[in-house]
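A protein record pairs a chain with a discrete description of its three-dimensional fold. The following entry can be read in just this way.
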Amino acid sequence: MPESGRMFKTESKNMTAPAYNLIIIQIPGLLVGFYKRGNVKEKIPDIKAIEKSEFDPLSYVAGYVISKMYRKSEVSARKETPEQLELQSLLLSMKSLQDNEYIDSLSRGKLWNPCENLLAITAECEKVFRQHSADLLREIPLQQVRADILQKPKVKAWDAILSDVSLAKSKTSVTDVCLENIMLYIRVRSFSYTKNVVTKMTIKEKVKFHKKALRKTLKKQAESAVDKSQ
């Protein structure tokens, strides 16, 4: 059973909620779970390039990912070890010193503005994610998403990010950081995707309820008018 199911409790002993609620509460756990494809090959849709207006929100998420990883390293019990110091240096190299009005307007100073190379990689992650989640309501194949992302030329050029790193760089740690960045982005994006699905279904249910209530009201008004005419 997905762990997300444990986070939802009900005060009622009766199952009066719409049936789709029982499905929705399981979606987050399923989306972030690893999905293994069977022998059936699915056609991956063509997705248009990321629009210029979308890069500000992408920079926000990319900045969130690297700042979260950095803070996690800083509070680690092994924060002074060579490996953690190297990781911190690597993450700092992904931070742009230029101002980002979009991030500044939403952040209280804790989020970072990602460098151009990292933003380019994030755009590739987003495009692949959209390919695997277009018009679907099922488990997102994270392993396949990650594999497809790692084949992108801009992602393979990961070493371009390391040009300003002063500490010695381990190929193993660089690869690990790259993968962790990608997987954390996918997980954040999966929950965002889930939230959108839940919102759409909630709105749809409310519209359906209001239409039903309106029909009931109109029917009563019509019956009342008939009674008065008699």
Summary: The chain is about 60% helix and 0% strand. The mean pLDDT is 68. Residues 49-191 form one domain. The radius of gyration is 24 Å.
